[in-house]
Design brief:
globular; three-stranded antiparallel β-sheet; single chain; alpha+beta; 5 strands
Amino acid sequence: MTDITYIPIWQPDGSYAFCYLSMITDCYTKEIIAWYVGETMEPWYSVECLTKALDTLDPDKIINLIHHSDRGIQYVSAAYTSLLIEAGIRISMTEIGDPKDNAVAERQNNTIKNELLKDIKFHSIGEVRRTLDKAIAFYNNERPHMSLNNMTPRQAASCKGKIHKKWTSYREKYLEKLEIQEGACTFAPQTLNMIERLSAEPVQHKQGLREIHSTSARDKN
């Protein structure tokens, strides 16, 4: 999962300009596997970040990865998508620009900026890069995560299967109740029960319900 976030660089006169941090995060371990700080929002800086991430992959292993991002111009650019396609990585993007559709990457932005870089004022892009090098190393190797059973991302990299959380995810509980079928519609158990119940009702009864609904609709019009 990936995203870009802005970091201010302060000038002597009190004004500021932005530099742009691109990060690629492993959704399973929460490890930041690649990052790059660019001077503009041009796609080439995100491409550089992706190239660094691809360099961490074992070329002798078959990969089954999904790359998820928002629909920023960097991620839909030919330079970026061609690298993913060439590596055999499937492309996933958000639909409507809702930050919750890219929540892991957005959370990383918040952790880096509002926790590890909090109250630090930068005066050059070099300062930003040097500080991030230390901050991300700390994040990956020393900072425990409640989402990883209080392990660090580097420790979680040795795990397989579901990792226990130190908090309750009601979203995950809901998703676990869904019947997952490859290539088919997915319904919650209560919806399936309703479908089965309606299917078992006499045809005449269901026809009557349709007629009542149709009559009500005409009355409203």
